């Protein structure tokens, strides 16, 4: 059993965090419609049905065709607005090969050199959604054979049209990455034979165009992934069957530096790609080794940010438990412990933004792709955004099994502190001594792979009439508060 005392006098200020930390991705393939990761079955989600490990050779079997997401759908709008004015990123691998057809001349058929088509109506729906939630828009653009001239240089007319149209529409694009995950050019959708020098040349051209013609747009990059500790000079073991370009080489080759340094964080690869390596089993999902991945990944990219973009914000522009559509348990309470820990750990290490992947697609989505009802991870995002203020404190409590403790100012502006306490032990209770009492938001589930989550014993759900639940605390007037194995609690003191 672990025992801690919550003493506000021991808190010291670390920094201010970005209030939009709970941002998210809407994949370009969600907007246009197209192939994406096939959903796991209910038995696979529950852990009662076996899943065969797969690799890239079986990728097509792991995909299915989805219609375009309806961003006007009332549940999506209501749940998006509830999270507040966050960033929305429209990107993903599919964005690298998407053609923008705003006058209908393609009739939905992708031109040579592209894989999909974005229509005016589809893009209008994105802009309307971002405006409705009071958010800001981050995009990446096409970098496929279709946007390269005969001499292999980049044709920027498609990108220029997207930015100009959005500005004219009244919802300008606020930030841009050139390309999704340039470390993995072999599977990115870039032209055959496209290499590091080509990427650096083209990102420089894209960033220069934005600085000259759309100076209000934040330059974000490089959307890095798959780096190991820089001291080792190695690529990550995940996807190690593919050629991977180190982020330090990408940054060293570029002349125009981003204003925001971005990277992607996944704890590993889902069962869909387990044959490639890097997969964690569900039994490991609350272990210290598993939960340390977020911290270690941030620790890889912070020095790179400091080296190439000193003083720039650090953004995680894709984040989730597992690449390849998420693990079978990512739609359950089991993944909430990882998500809560990531929010606390990242905000204590730096003052950036996390873009959860995705909002409403595949098994890692915050919302169910079919019903658009909230999954457990949605509620942890919502509670964090409602309770945790912008000032981040050091708790002086070491992270260990049973005690993942983080502290911020209170979002309501009142004196005191907002604590997040995660008991990731499978067997032991954690006791927290409260000197003057606390308002307690206790999160539980009937079992770890449950798709339901409870707040102080009441199931969190959205009603058919779009009514959101009351997120009310229980008052603990002092003494010792017991946090059971696998429980999460927000504590307002």
Automatic annotation (TrEMBL):
It comes from the Bacteria. This is Beta-glucuronidase. The lineage of its organism: Bacteria, Bacillati, Bacillota, Clostridia, Lachnospirales.
């Amino acid at each position: 059993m672990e025992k801690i005392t919550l003493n506000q006098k021991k808190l010291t200020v670390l920094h201010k965090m970005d209030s939009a930390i709970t941002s998210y991705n809407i994949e370009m393939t969600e907007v246009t419609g197209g192939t994406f990761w096939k959903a796991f079955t209910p038995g696979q989600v529950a852990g009662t049905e076996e899943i065969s490990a797969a690799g890239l050779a079986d990728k097509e079997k792991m995909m299915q065709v989805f219609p375009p997401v309806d961003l006007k759908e009332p549940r999506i709008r209501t749940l998006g607005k509830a999270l507040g004015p966050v960033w929305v990123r429209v990107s993903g691998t599919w964005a690298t090969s998407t053609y923008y057809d705003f006058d209908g001349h393609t009739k939905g058929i992708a031109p040579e050199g592209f894989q999909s088509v974005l229509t005016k109506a589809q893009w209008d729906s994105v802009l309307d959604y971002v405006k409705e939630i009071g958010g800001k828009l981050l995009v990446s653009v096409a970098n496929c054979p279709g946007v390269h001239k005969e001499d292999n240089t980049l044709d920027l007319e498609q990108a220029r049209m997207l930015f100009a149209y959005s500005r004219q529409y009244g919802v300008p694009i606020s930030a841009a990455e050139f390309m999704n995950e340039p470390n993995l050019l072999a599977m990115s959708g870039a032209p055959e034979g496209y290499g590091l020098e080509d990427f650096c040349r083209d990102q420089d051209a894209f960033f220069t165009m934005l600085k000259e013609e759309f100076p209000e747009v934040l330059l974000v990059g490089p959307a890095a992934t798959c780096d190991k500790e820089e001291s080792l000079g190695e690529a990550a073991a995940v996807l190690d069957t593919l050629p991977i370009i180190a982020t330090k080489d990408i940054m060293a080759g570029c002349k125009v530096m981003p204003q925001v340094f971005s990277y992607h964080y996944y704890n590993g690869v889902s069962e869909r790609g387990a044959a490639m390596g890097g997969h964690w089993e569900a039994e490991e999902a609350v272990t210290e080794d598993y939960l340390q991945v977020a911290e270690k990944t941030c620790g890889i990219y912070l020095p790179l940010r400091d080296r190439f973009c000193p003083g720039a914000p650090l953004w995680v522009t894709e984040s989730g438990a597992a690449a390849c559509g998420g693990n079978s348990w990512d739609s359950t309470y089991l993944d909430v412990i990882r998500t809560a820990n990531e929010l606390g750990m990242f905000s204590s290490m730096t003052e950036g933004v996390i873009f959860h992947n995705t909002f409403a697609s595949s098994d890692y989505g915050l919302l169910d792709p079919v019903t658009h009802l909230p999954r457990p991870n949605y509620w942890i995002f919502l509670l964090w955004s409602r309770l945790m203020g912008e000032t981040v404190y050091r708790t002086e409590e070491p992270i260990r099994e049973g005690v993942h403790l983080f502290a911020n100012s209170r979002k309501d502006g009142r004196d005191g502190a907002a604590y997040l306490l995660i008991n990731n032990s499978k067997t032991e209770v954690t006791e927290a001594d409260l000197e003057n009492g606390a308002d307690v938001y206790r999160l539980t589930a009937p079992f770890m792979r449950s798709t339901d989550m409870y707040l102080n014993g009441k199931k969190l759900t959205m009603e058919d009439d779009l009514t959101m639940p009351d997120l009310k605390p229980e008052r603990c007037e002092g003494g010792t508060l017991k946090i059971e194995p696998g429980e999460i609690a927000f504590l307002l003191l």
